[in-house]
Design a protein that fits this description.
By secondary structure, the protein is α/β, with parallel strands linked by helices. The protein has 2 domains: about 60-70 and about 155-445, TIM Barrel; about 450-514, no CATH class. It contains 24 helices and 12 strands. Strands 1-4-5-6 form a 4-stranded parallel β-sheet. Strands 7-8-9-10 form a 4-stranded parallel β-sheet. It has a two-stranded antiparallel ribbon with strand order 2-3. Strand 5, helix 13 and strand 6 form a beta-alpha-beta unit. Helix 5 (about 75-80) packs parallel to helix 8, helix 10 crosses helix 13 and helix 13 (about 260-275) packs parallel to helix 15. Bound molecules: zinc ion (ZN). Zinc ion binds near residues 350 and 410.
Length: about 525
């Protein structure tokens, strides 16, 4: 079954979905907002319209998005051809030169000349048509990264340009992208220094062994990636809307390496966030159910906690609870989310699918709601990797407990989706109202790691801070007090811009033919 057919399948369950729509709280709805909500309900009755409606709707941001997984296979193949790479045909894997056709490693340009071969490779590099094969979604998903990895080489800027262009095309104003520059160098340093049970001392030894040089080099790499993306997009010339998408990065620690290497990567991530405003937080990646990830999970959380003591205030988000019963033994379902929050100090959780298998789950849910620990929800990813969909997903439980949620893509290229698709999917599956999707959009900025104070004094009701309380949200001519507040906060500025976009969108929906 293709993903498109899957989409058709869940469109059909609209009629079955229980009504869970929660009215939007907060500032009094304007007439245009009410008219937009009515139009949204009409679109839900003709759900084929939802992609158009939700693509046009401003979406605050995508907070869970691995840069390499953002790229559609077609682009990896095009870059591989342009860069003279090869294809290991039997493994559907792009590989660096030298090519050797006789050994099953021809130039990729030759290997994909027929439409059939090209299509087969697009499938192998993504989740397209995966259900036709004999491989589980989990294994297919994670295998793709190894297959297209060689095509990423030297193309980070191209990947970023693709992500920014696709965001602009869907009215997404902010991206928080995960990527791993410098992590290989950090792992080498970690291997050289070795392990030490005293994590503070281990940190000092890494610094003495050359961590600051890795930090400096990595910051340069981030700069080069941004410059290349902006050059590709022609931001200095034509300046398309993609250039106005705000981009920040999350340093991505790969957790399936020996402890001394994971610690060195984590130390690099903390140092990057501390020294470079473009890098706003860190995350741990690679399958959570991997043997090493499971074995070292508690140790990893302790590493983050220890470094957070040395460098307080570094925002952490963690893949936690991307597990199901059977994928791992039951014991591994009991503590990952709690440990991420309580030991590592995670402010956001990626996935959180197994929350109801945690020890004392209701207490944990209440705590997450109270402490405003947001969950990055990735519905398609959870479907294709874990087989968790619809009512089996804890989306509605999180909402019922008031845990803040955002929608994100987690590899839109690999999964052949986009963020709009995830909004459509959530709307149809959980019968969301316009106020609900607007809240999800706002949450993406409220819980973003952008610097500065939030616009919302109360992030549940969207009541603005006092300085902006008397201003129409998103006004182009804010009062002196509000303008001053916005100037002092990157986050609030982005939030104000989103409100301005909502005002324009709702005016269009109420009065025009967008
Ligand atoms: Zn992820």
């Amino acid at each position: 079954m293709s993903l498109r057919r899957t989409l058709g399948g869940w469109l059909a369950i609209l009629a079955l979905a229980a009504c869970t729509g929660v009215p939007a709280a907060g500032p009094a709805a304007t007439a245009n907002e009410a008219a937009t909500a009515t139009r949204f309900e009409a679109a839900k009755r003709r759900p084929a319209e939802l992609p158009a409606f939700l693509r046009a709707m401003p979406k605050g941001g995508d907070l869970h998005n691995h840069l390499s997984g953002t790229v559609y296979s077609e682009n990896f193949i095009a870059w591989a051809i342009a860069d003279g790479l090869c294809l290991i045909v039997a493994e559907h894997t792009i590989a660096p030169p030298p090519c050797d056709a006789a050994a099953g490693r021809p130039p990729i340009a030759d290997a994909v000349q027929s439409g059939t071969a090209y299509n087969r490779l697009v499938d192998a590099l993504s989740m397209r048509n995966y259900a036709l094969g004999a491989v589980s979604g989990h294994n297919q998903f994670f295998a793709t990264f190894g297959r297209f990895g060689a095509a990423e080489n030297g193309r980070d800027g191209d990947m970023l340009a693709e992500a920014m262009a696709r965001a602009a095309d869907q009215n997404i104003g902010y991206l928080e992208l995960m990527l791993s520059p410098g992590m290989a160098a950090a792992r080498r340093l970690g291997a050289e220094v070795g392990w030490d049970d005293d994590l503070a001392r281990l940190h000092r030894r890494l610094i003495a062994a050359g961590l600051p040089a890795v930090v400096a080099q990595t910051r340069e790499e981030f700069g080069a990636i941004e410059s290349r993306a902006r050059a590709i997009l022609d931001c200095a010339g034509a300046h398309p809307p993609a250039c106005d998408v705000t981009v920040r990065f999350l340093a991505q620690v790969i957790r399936v390496f020996p402890p001394e290497q994971v610690f060195a990567q984590t130390a690099l991530a903390f140092a990057l966030v501390e020294t470079d405003p473009r890098i706003v937080g860190l995350n741990f990646v690679a399958p959570e159910d991997d043997r090493v990830s499971l074995r070292d999970y508690r140790l990893h959380m302790r590493m983050i906690g220890a470094l957070a003591k040395q460098t307080p205030g570094v925002p952490v988000t963690l893949h936690a609870g991307e597990l199901t019963l059977g994928l791992v033994p039951p014991e591994d379902l009991r503590f990952h989310i709690r440990d991420a929050i309580e030991t590592a100090g995670a402010r956001r959780i990626g996935h959180g699918v197994d929350i109801l298998y945690e020890d004392r789950p209701y207490q944990l849910l209440r705590r997450m709601a109270e402490d405003q620990v947001a969950v990055e929800i990735n519905l398609t990813s959870n479907d294709v990797i874990l087989g968790v969909t619809g009512k089996a997903h804890p989306f509605e439980t999180y909402r019922a407990y008031g845990v803040p949620l955002t929608l994100s893509t987690d590899d839109e290229g690999v999964s052949r989706i986009d963020l709009t698709h995830e909004y459509v999917r959530a709307t149809v599956t959980y019968d969301l109202g316009y106020g609900d999707v607007k809240a999800l959009s706002r949450n993406a900025l409220t819980y973003a790691f952008l610097a500065g104070t939030s616009l919302w004094q109360d992030s549940r009701t969207f009541r603005p801070v006092r300085a902006c309380a008397d201003d129409p949200l998103g006004s182009r001519t804010p009062s002196t007090a509000c303008a001053g507040f916005l100037r002092a906060s990157e986050k609030a500025t982005a939030q104000w811009r989103l409100e301005e976009a909502f005002t324009a969108f709702e005016t269009d929906m109420a009065t025009g033919t967008p």
